[in-house]
Design goal:
single chain; 334 residues; alpha+beta; 4-stranded antiparallel beta sheet; two-stranded antiparallel ribbon; 16 helices; 7% strand
Length: 334
Amino acid sequence: MLRLVLLLILALCAHALAASPQQREAEVKAFVDEMVREHAFDREELMALMRSARFRGDIIEAMQKPAESKAWHQYRPIFVTMARSRAGAQFWEENEALLQRAEREYGVAPEIIVAIIGVETLYGRYTGRHRVLDAISTLAFGYPRRADFFRKQLEEFLLLAREEDIDLDAAKGSYAGAMGMPQFIPSSYRAYAVDFDGDGKRDLFDNKADIIGSVANYFSRHGWRNGEMVAVKTDATQAPEGIEPALKRPQKPDLTLSQLSELGISINAGLPADTPANLLRLENENFDEYWVGLQNFYVITRYNHSNLYAMAVYQLSREILSMREAVRDELVAR
């Protein structure tokens, strides 16, 4: 069975044609050897588990055309919707005490926590249909471009399952192996998930306390600054000349508002001139939007390394906040 899986991977992944079936099988055996040596896994049990993993060609295809490859005007309507904002306001109402506690302990705004969960899984409605073991093993041994990363995730997933008593056969997630309501990949699950209700287990599948606390912890550990702005739209309706180099800078803010102003990019936010920032361009059908991303925008990109993703989370958070205030005003009026 293991050889068959490897042969399927070899046949379906055109970019892996240089590898022989024997080499592919050797990679899996070497991985098993490492897990036995480094983490005391049982060799026979782990080999049996690896033989049960199904190669999924559709996962390889999904990796090659992520939503983040879309233009902004195509991407935004997927995530920033009235239905998602309404669901977010309801999730906030149902979990207000947990969100307040998470803000006190981790210093992360509730609307950001709620927006992340909304973008990732629509509050648990779409947590993924792929068996996590199948997804990660397919990418670890069938997607050479990121094989090292996913072999590490496979290692982390096996350790996580042992630590948190996760059923390896039943655990479902995304095509990239992200799990639970907040869609943590295995390494993030192990590093940032918290037991927020003190029941002795970190459960990101069903436990709202752990889900909310873990998202807050993730943002806190990556440098979220509560109360500070996330991003500000610029006044420019057209791009000033000479800004292309600024658009190609790293995601981490390494320019200042003063430097951006010298390029013709200004914002009306009352921030100090030396505030670290970066410049973002969002493509629409007939025009481009220009935004200035600040430290908190960069922190959102640590969850998903895409400016489109971070902007969708930020804008959804604002919509959720407005929706929640409107609902409260309506209740007061009654």
